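Quick illustration, no need to memorize.
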Amino acid sequence: MKGLVLFLGLQFPDLHPFHSSVTEMSYNSRDQSWEISIRLFQDDLEQTMSSNLGKKYRMIPGDEVSEKALEAYVRKHVGFRTGKQIATPYRWLGTEQQQDVIWVYIEIPTSSDLIGSYLENSLFLDEFEDQTNLVSWSFQGQKKSYLFRKTQEVQQLSR
């Protein structure tokens, strides 16, 4: 088995052994807003978006067409809810590319700690069986992490 993994690694050097996104949510008390950054592997993003759109997708930060398509996808798969209603809409700030990673930036203008809200993070879960989405939450010195996967796409934020 090690030989196969080594062979595949040599043949496809851009593949990574796992599928994961990382979201950081931190509260900015001065601006009274949640600053949220989502780190996505570009190859996973492009594969998922191509599957969802039914045509080849290439992420080009700053390009209006690719940004709009990504924004629509993120809004469909990341959200805050009270029950089944969207409780906290967020502002799309844009994207940034760093090597093989695309950063997505959003913000929620509110003074709420969001405790009790339900967070959905189903990014790429429809594309990769082993996909996990880690969310790190930080509010006034308190920190908590949540792990989202196919069997757990929605979680309630708690202390």
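The two ends are 43 Å apart (CA to CA).
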